[in-house]
Amino acid sequence: MRKGDTIVFDKPPCVLSYAAVGGKKESEGPLSEAFDMLITDTRCGEKTWEKAESDFVRCCLETALKKARLEPGALNAVFAGDLQCQCTASAYTMRGFDVPYLGLYGACSTMAEGMGLASCMVAGGHMRHAAAMSSSHFCAAERQFRTPLDYGGKRTPTAQWTVTGAGTAILAQEGEGPYVRAATFGRVRDYDITDINNMGAAMAPAACETIVRYFSDTGEDPAHFDAIYTGDLGMVGSTLLLQLLEQAGLKLNNHKDCGLIVYDRESQNVQAGGSGAGCSAAVLCCHVLPALREGRMSRVLFLSTGALMSQTTFLQGESIPGIAHLIELSSGLTRPGVKGGAA
Amino acid sequence: MRKGDTIVFDKPPCVLSYAAVGGKKESEGPLSEAFDMLITDTRCGEKTWEKAESDFVRCCLETALKKARLEPGALNAVFAGDLQCQCTASAYTMRGFDVPYLGLYGACSTMAEGMGLASCMVAGGHMRHAAAMSSSHFCAAERQFRTPLDYGGKRTPTAQWTVTGAGTAILAQEGEGPYVRAATFGRVRDYDITDINNMGAAMAPAACETIVRYFSDTGEDPAHFDAIYTGDLGMVGSTLLLQLLEQAGLKLNNHKDCGLIVYDRESQNVQAGGSGAGCSAAVLCCHVLPALREGRMSRVLFLSTGALMSQTTFLQGESIPGIAHLIELSSGLTRPGVKGGAA
What we know:
Two copies of one chain form a homodimer. Chain A is of the alpha/beta class. Chain A has eleven helices and 15 strands.
C-alpha cells in the first residue's frame, strides 16, 4: 500500500540474518564487541586497499549466509554498492558468488536503498531471499575523494572518518523478525555546499526532507519510535538536521546518528564522526537489528544518507547533492502506531 | 511468478512512453531519424562534458514525461545510472526533478537493470509510474576510462565508440503496450579479459549466461522471438556470444546488438561498434520500443551488458567482470510462446 511516497508493506518482509565486519579503528570503538568479525589488517593481506574492501564484503556476505543457514544459491539477488568508482568493491566481490547481482549507487545511502528495494522485491513476491549490502574503506575513500593518505593533509573539524567495514542483511518472506514495515525512497536535495570536508551539512537537508515526508505520509508520531537513526551525518550534520526539522515543525528527542555511535569522538580523533557507505550498513547490522531482535527496541526508523558528488564534479566546482532513503523497522508484527510488543 | 532466476509477470507492466536523445555522431548514424532529439553540440553549451551529459539526461526525461502526458510529480521513482564516477550524470540531473531517485550502477547494463527493477515495483503494486533511464558521453567516458581525448591515442580494432546519448522509459500498471513480460537479473562473469579496449569480449560471457538461463528457466524457443538484442557487445563481443551460445547448445538466428545498430561501421570509424550505458538505453527507446508499439515486431528479448571495471582496478591489473540483465518485451498481451498478435 502506498501512502504518498511511503510504501507500507501489507506483508512485511523479515530480516532473516545480518552481519557486520569492521576494521582496526572500528575494533577500537564503542561497537567493538558487536561486530561479527574484526579485521585489523587494513590491507587484509592484499596488495591494495580496494581488494581489501572486497575481502571485507565477501566475509560479511559469507557470515550473513551462515547465520541464516543459507547457501549462496538460495539468494535470488544481492543488492549492493559502495563508494569506489564504478562500485568495484561490490562487483568484484560478486565474482565469487554465483548469485544475481543488482548494483546500486547511492553513495552512503546505499544500505537503506538496498534494504528498501530488497524488501519490495520480497514483499511483491518476486524474490524469496534477497540480500542488501554495502561497504567502505577509509584509505580507498580518502585517496579517491580527497587526498592520498601519504600527503598527510590536516583534517578539518567538519571532516568525517570513513568507516572501514561492511554490513549485509538478508530479507525473506517469512521469519521471526525484525521486520521491514515501510520504505520511503528519497529525493535529491542540494543546499549548495561545496566543501568536500563537510559531508554532514551536504546530506542533512535530504535527511530532513525524507523524515518530514515519512511522517506526513503516514501520520505517525516520532514519539512512537525508540529511535530515529540517520546514516552518517556526524556532529555537524546531526545538529543541522535537528534545526531543519524544527523549522519544519518536527521536534525529535530520539535522533541517533550511526556516525556518532561507531566511534568515540573524545578519544578516537575522528573529527565530526564516522561516515562512509559502510558506516550505516555496519551499524544497522551490528547494533540496530540485534537490538530489535533481542527486544531491547521495538520500533525504529533507519535512514542512510548519501552525498552524491565525485572527485570530478568537486574539481569542477559543483555543489554536493544529498539523498536519504528510509526504512521503518519493528521487532514484531503488532499493529503500527503502538510501541512495544514482539509478535 | 518465479521460474528459476526469471521473474514472469502475472500482470505485465506497460511501457507508457519512451524517449531517446543522441549527439553528433548519433545524428550521422542509421538511427538519426528515430531519435526524439539530437544535440549536435557535444558540450550542450556547458563548460564541461559531464554537465553536458546531465543536460542530455534532463532533456530525455522531460521528453518521456511529455510523451506520457505526465508531470514529474506523477513518477513514484526514477531508476537511473551512468558511467561517470559516482554516477553524477544521473544524480546531478535529479536535482532538477522533485522525484524519488534510486541510483543504480550496472555500467552499460544499467538500462535493463532499471527496466527490470521498475517493472517489479510497478507489477508488485509498490509504484504506479516509475522511470528507467541511462546515459553516456563519449568524451567524458574516454578520459575517465582510457586516455584524455587530447592525447590522440590510436584506437584498436576491438575498441568501441561510447554513445553520446540517453534513453528513458516510463512504466505504468496499465496501458496499451508494449509490455514487460519477464525479467532475468544477471550474475557476474569474469573470463579474465584485461584489455580495456576490448569490452565486447569481457561482456560476452555474461550475456551468454543470462540468455541461456532465461531459456532454461522458461522453456521458451529462441525462434519465437522477432529478435534477441544485446546492449553493446559490438562486432567482437557479438561473434564471441554466438560461439559461446552454440557451445551451450543454443543457436540464434535472430541476434542483434545495439552497438551494431546505432552506427554504420563502414563509414563512421567506430571500430568494433557502439558502446556505453547510453547505447542500449537509446536504441531501446528509439528503435526497439517503437517497433513493438507500431506492430513491426511482436516479441523480443532485450539485454543490456555491462563491464564492471574502473580505471583504478584496470591500473591495478585486475581483470574485467561482466554482467547482463534481460527483459522480455511484447507488443501485446496474448499468451507467451505464441509469436505475433497485438492485444
